[in-house]
Amino acid sequence: MASIADYVRTEERSFAELPLNEVDALIFGTLIYEDVARICPTLALDESDPESADGSFASRIRSFEPEHPLLWLRALWHPMMESISIADANQKLHQSTANEENDKPHEPQVVSVLDPSLTHALFQTCAKSPRFAGVRLGAVVEHVNRGEQTQFAAATFQLPDGRSRRNPTRKGTLVISFRGTDDSFIGWKEDFNMSFQYPVPAQRAASAYLDTVARLWAGPIILTGHSKGGNLAVYAAMNADAKVQRRIQHVYSLDGPGFPQEIVTSPAYRAIQPKVTKIVPSSSIVGMIFETPEPCRVVASDSDGIMQHSSHTWLVNGDQFVTEPDLSSSSQLFNERLNQWVVSLTPEQRERAVDALFRVLHANGATRLSDLMGNLPAAIPSMLGAYVGLTPEDRRHLTEAMAILFRAAATKRKPAATAGTSATEPATSPSDAPSDAPSDAPAAEPAPATDAIASAEGPNSNVTTAVSAPRYGSQVPTPTAPDSPNSTSSAA
User: Fold this and answer.
1) Which stretches does the entry tag as region Disordered (predicted)?
2) Where are the domains of the chain?
3) From CA 469, how far away is CA 476, in angstroms rounded?
4) What are the distances in angstroms from CA 222 to CA 101, 213, 247, 261, 343?
5) H runs (alpha helix) in 364-445
6) What would the pLDDT profile of 294-342 be if each residue is shown by its tens digit?
7) Numbers of helices and strands, H then E, in the chain
8) pLDDT for 155-172, tens place per residue?
9) CB 351 within 8 A of CB 37
10) Residues 6+ apart with CB under 8 A from 245
C-alpha cells in the first residue's frame, strides 16, 4: 500500500485536471508542520480587527503609484496574494544563508509530534511534483503565547486551478491549512483546556485568520487541518459569516478533536456540518476526544496505537485512502470512557485536573513533550513528588484521566490490509479488543510512570456516570471535488 509521499511522487495530473481530494487535504494539512514562517510571506493578523491586516483595502489605497495607475487600479480591486511557490520555498529552505552563524543548510525543526524529517522529506517531494510544485504558499501566521496558553499557526496554499491561462493562480482555490498541536506543553495544555474553556485562543485566531484571508483574496475556499488543526478548521467555518461560508467548498478534519455536546447541537455547527468530512485512523485517540456527530471515514494505517495519529502512516490507494469498515473497539471504548470522565466533572474540576496534569509534567523542568519522553526515567521521581503534593481529589481525577490515556496509547492496531486483501474486511485480531483486555500489552515506556502513580494513589474509584456513546465509524461516500463531473453533496 502507498503513503502520502508515494501519492505525491506518482500523481502527475494538475489540480485543474484532478480537483483537490481527501489525500491532497491531508498533504496540505501536513506541509504546514514544516518550518516555513522564516522564508514565506507572512500575514499580520489582528484578531480584534481583521480588516487592519496587511493587504487591506485601505492599505492598498495608500499604496497608489502614479507611475503605474492601471496596475494599481487592478490590484485595488483584484489583489494578488503575496506568495511563493512550493518549489521556490523548498529551495530557500535548503540554501545556505551567510547570515547564519554556522552557515549550514536548513535542518528539519521540531514543530509537532510528527517526525520532522518525514515532513521535511514530504515538502521536498512536493517541490519536485508536477502537481504540487507550482502551488503558491503565503499568508503564514505563527503565534505562541505562554501567558495565554495558546499555540497557533496557519498558512494559505493557492492552487493553480484558476480560469486564467496566463495566471492560473488568480482566483484559484484557497486551501487554508491550520497546524495541529506542536511539541510544546503550551500547545498540549490548550488542547486539554477545551474541556472547560470555549473557545480557546487558537480557535479565535483561526476564525480571525479565515475572515482576513477571505476578505483579502478571491476564490473558492477549502479548509483543512490535522489533529488540533482539524478542530480549528471546523470552528473557523462555523463562525464565518454567511458570505464567507458560501465560498467554503469543503472542510477536512483529519483526526481532529470534536466539540462539546452543546456546540455540536447548535445551529451554527449544523449549518456547516454538510461540508465537513472527518477522517480518522482505526485506532484513533485524538480524533475521539469530545463529540463528533457526523460519520467518520476510517482510514487504514501501517502503524500501531497512538502512532496512527501520524499522517505519514495513513495508507493510500490511487487518489483515495484505504479504508476500514469501522473504528477499533478500543478506540470507541476510549471515546466512551473519556466522555464519561468529562461529563462526571464540573468545569472547575476539569480545569483543576488539567492544571494538575501539567504541574506533574512540568515537575522536572521540561517544556516540550520530546524533552520529557527522552528522559522519562529520570523525570519520574520529580513527577511523583508533584503528584503526591496534589490534593486527594485532584489526584483521583488525574489518575482516572491518565489511566484512560495510557490504556488508549497502549492499544495495538489490527493487521493492515495487504495487496490482494480488502481493507474493508472485518478484522478479527485480538488487538481489536478493548484496550484493557489481557491481549493488549502496555506501552513500553509510559507503563512504569502509570504504575508508580497508581500505586501512590491506591485503588481508583470507577466512573459511574452513564452517557450514551456517539456512533462512529459509519462509512460515508468518498467526497468528490465540487467541480468534478461526479460531484455529490459533501459527506455529513
Assistant:
1) 414-492
2) 4-327, 337-457
3) 19
4) 40, 12, 9, 25, 33
5) 369-374, 376-388, 392-409
6) 889 999 999 888 788 899 999 999 999 999 999 988 888 888 888 888 8
7) 18, 10
8) 999 999 876 666 666 679
9) no
10) 237, 271, 272
